[in-house]
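Complex 400.
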Amino acid sequence: MILMQVPEIPYLMPEQASTMAGQVDAVYLYLWALTIFFITIVSTMLIVFSVKYRRRSVDEIPRQVAGSIKLEVAVNSLVFVSFMSIFVLGAYLYFVQYRTPAGAMEIHVVGKQWMWKFQHPTGEREINELHVPMNTKIKFVMTTEDVIHSLYFPAMRVKSDVVPGRYTNLWFEATKEGTYHIFCTEFCGTNHSGMGGRVIVMKPTDYQDWVSGSANDVSPVEAGRELYTSLGCASCHGANSEGGRCPPLVALYGKQVALQGGTSVVANEDYIRESILNPAAKVVAGYPLLMPTYQGQLSEEQLLQLVTYIKSLSPTQTDGIDVTAPARENNPRVGAPTLEGQGATSPDSYRSNPIGATPPGNTGAAGGSGAAPTGSGTTSSGAGGRTANPGSTRPRPDNQ
Ligand code: CUA
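Predicted structure with dinuclear copper ion bound:
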């Protein structure tokens, strides 16, 4: 760790409850100190110079001062170095935060208007409440059923968007027992402000007790294996995912896959997801495209279970390969999931959904009636401007 951890400052910042928190606060305080330093210098000089060099008589003509190269170089270097230091510290923290460490416990997150759904590796599910063990690295594999949300743990100083049709990652290691806030920090509709919850950090032994409390939960790997069978994946990918008419899935995760057309791709969570929903997007070299799309047939939870099952077939690779920053790629996907495909079928999720789904008719009427007055408004103001111009230019020569 390069960065020092600053201690918690009560009332100024949220509690510190993760390994990241002290470091984020350190950068924050540094920014603060830097800002105060420059504000002090600039405002002091502003006041001193305006008094010192004030105009002393009406006829005074200021004496010309030639610049000083030394001074200019010094000032610019100081500013350059201090602002680049913000970049270096910020970039360092960014890499720590968005590079998921190996061997982390994996929790699945699905955002939905307006709740957070969590699933533990054991299969235990929670909504708007999350129990986690202390001193354990926890990796979140996250997506959303409808619109973009953003999962924020203020006490851990970490957050990340959850984006439709894609997996994003987040991780933290809690350092202090307690109950802390969970917020959604991306405006996502009417009840955005209520889309929160709490994270409960427990001693690892307490967590084990808590998680073993409901023994009849099916783990995501188990559920994924059942889906693999019930969806008929075995008929092409083999009963044990060893391959057949379609590529083998054993030891796939984390591997470099050669594709038709000579390109290749790392088989991460996003690639597996894409291949289930849109098999034609990236076809493995040497195999015909036989697979139908499963778009619209699987919920986000089921997709995550299938992906988790496929990951479990590569035990040596399962950890720490997927390094997904919040906005790693901005290319819109081919065949981006539809709202229906994402399960946003309730009227509530449509109502405040920014992706479209405005009731037809309403928009046309509003746009039509709105356009007419605006149009006439601009023409009249344009005409007014034209007549005003000669008037405003004319007095000038008279005044001179
Ligand atoms: Cu979800 Cu704001």
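Residues 193 and 295 are 31 Å apart (CA to CA).
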